[in-house]
Structures are given as structure tokens and as C-alpha cells.
Amino acid sequence: MAHDKPASILSQPTAVWAVAFASVIAFMGIGLVDPILPAIAESLRATPTQTEMLFTSYLLITGVAMFFTSWLSSRIGAKRTLLIGLALIVVFALAAGLSQNVESIIGFRAGWGLGNALFISTALATIVGAASGGTSSAIILYEAALGLGIAIGPLLGGLLGSWSWRGPFFGTATLMAIGFIAIATLLRKDPEKLTPTPLSAPFRALANPSLGFLAAAALFYNIGFFVLLAYTPFALVPLGVSSAISLGFIFFGWGVSLAVTSVWVAPLLTRWLPRTRVLWIVMPLLAVDLAAAGLVIGSVFGLIVCVIVGGLLLGILNTVLTECVMEATDLPRAVASSAYSGVRFLGGAIAPPAATLLAAMFTAATPFYAAAISVLVATALIMIGHRHLKRVDGVEGSLLEEAEALTLADAS
């Protein structure tokens, strides 16, 4: 295997740190509303499924918009795309905090998702393009920002949410404004030369077997991810855990676990094993953890343990999947990132309301069992597509396979 070694992960240009800082804030938006879901449902007299739509509108628009971010950034540049994304988040987060009903928040979260798509997809390509130390170092830095943001998001949401459910939205708007200033002042030029890509490029990129299998697997994997993140707060409410601050601390522990394994454990595992082998091992463990959450649905301690263990496993999987996508093809990074992220976030959009509907139709444990099955489907897809994923393991395919891959890339 010929993986890059993340030797100089801390020795990065100022522009990379600026984008990483803004990425932390952007990813805070994913978990920020988690601790205040029960409070929003109670204050605005919304059902759990309506409240879960705060995730769905955000992730659905994020996913759809991801397919078009590479087209835009390849024309106006990474810096402008990042700034437009941050500005949209500031505006819509502020509007959500001023809302008087759950329907308005759902709509403003959709606008927030548009800004998030412009930022997240471009941030990954920008960090990989500008960072020193190789692709793996850049991805670990990006995943560290993701983990830190996801960890801080619920904690900040819990702290501000204990004052008012509006607090987390105003807090995000303020922090994103700071991120906007950091990018505007510290990212002085685009890390890569502008090469306009066709509007259809991300869609055609999915015809590449390696990227197609990874994106499909990520869709089912993300269902498991967001059942654990978005449904668990409602599963904890009947057990007496409903305050924003309590939920904030639980999911802060989840986020810290995710950050630790994404930065330190994932690189160790991929140094010892091929990336696909790591996915084969860790994905089934995540499925077991989700099934265990269903089995201990009546225990506060049991659910919290499953949440923390889930965070440890998710950190490994996030980093390894992202590395696989960046190494799988010769396609431009922005195109590969847009195509993969678009499909991945659509899986996240499906999960939250589907989980509450399953719980209402069957039992409170059913969403966890469904999520476990979904993660096993993701594992099966990685195994079925393994012959197309030799490149991500540092193994060169035959000349015929290379020719087929290049033909698909040229078609996009």
C-alpha cells in the first residue's frame, strides 16, 4: 500500500487554517439543533416528525445543491463560493432564530442547507488543494474540523438552548460571521487554477464504478449516522432525559469520540490494513452498535453508551470513506466531492423523519434496527464493488481496468 503519511498535519498555510476554522463552525450546524429538538417540539407544538424535518430540509437541500457546487466554484473560484455559502448561513440561521412557527424554521433550514452545500463541498477541495503533507494529511485535518464541529455543536446548542431554543441559531449566525471574516482576510487566492467543469460532471462522475459504489454505500451509511444523531434525543425523552443541556453533553461526548478516532485511530488502521478492509470491519461493528441501541431502548445508560461507541466508529468511517473518494478516480477533486457528498447527504435527509415514523408505527427500537440493516447494506456494497476499489487501497488494476476507468472519466 502506498498511503500518504500525515507527518506535517500541523504545518499548514494560514489559508488552510482559516478554511478549517470556518469548517468547524459549519459542521457545528449539523448537531446544533440536536439538543433543542424536544424543546422546539414543545415550544412550537410540533410533532416529532415535524421537528425532524429541521434535519431533512437542511440535508435534502445540502445534498441536491452539492451536485452543482463544483460547476459554480470552477467558474467564480473557491474563495467566492466559500464566502457566498457562509453569508447564506448567517442570513438563514438568523432568520430561523426569529421564526414564530416550526414551518418557518424548516424553510430557513433549507436555505441554511444551500449555504452549507456551497461551503462544505468547496472547503474539502480547498483544504486538499492547499494543504501541505499530502492528501491524507489534508483529509485528516478536514475530518478533525468535522469532528470538532460536530462535538461543539450539540454542547453549544445545549448551553444556548437552556436559555432559549432560539439561542443556538443566533450563536451560529454570529460564529459564521466570524468565519466569513477569517476566509475573506486569510484566504488570499484560490489554491488551484480555475478550470470550468460542465454542469453534468458530478452526475456523470457517478457512472465511474468506484465513485458510484462509494456514493451508494455512503447513502446507506449516512442513514445509520443520522438515526443515531437525530432520533436518539427523542428516544431519551421517555427515559427522563429531555433538557437541552443534558442532551448537549451526551452528544458532545459523541462528537469528541468521533473527532478522536477520525484524527488518530483511522490513520493507524489504514497504515496496517487496506482502506476497504477497514470499512469491511468497522461498518458491521456500527451495525451491531445500532442494533444494541434497539435492544437497550429502555435504559438511559445503555443508550448513552451506544451513542458514545457509535461516535468512535463513525469517526473512523468518515475519514476512511473520504480518503477513498479523494483517491478513487482521476476526476477533479471538486467534482468527486460534489458527486459523493450529494448522494451521501440525501441518505441523511431520509433518516430523521423516517425514524420517527417507524417509531410511531412499530416500537421505539425499530428505527435503530432499520439503521443497522442500512449500514449492513452499505457494507455489502463495498464488498460487491471491491474490484473497482483497488486504487483506494494503493493496488494498481490491470491495463484493461485502467482503460475502462479513464474512458468513464473522459465521458464526464
TrEMBL record:
Subcellular location: Cell membrane
Pfam family, one: MFS_1
PROSITE patterns (alphabetical): MFS
Main location group: membrane
Topological category with respect to the lipid bilayer: Multi-pass membrane protein
Matches recorded under CDD domains: MFS_YfmO_like
Protein transport recorded as keyword: no
Keyword terms, alphabetized: Membrane, Transmembrane, Transmembrane helix
Domain Major facilitator superfamily (MFS) profile residue range list: 15-390
Stored InterPro entries: MFS, MFS_dom, MFS_trans_sf, Tet-R_TetA/multi-R_MdtG-like, YfmO-like
MF term (GO), any: transmembrane transporter activity
Gene3D superfamilies: MFS general substrate transporter like domains (1.20.1250.20)
Domain of life: Bacteria
Record protein name field: MFS transporter
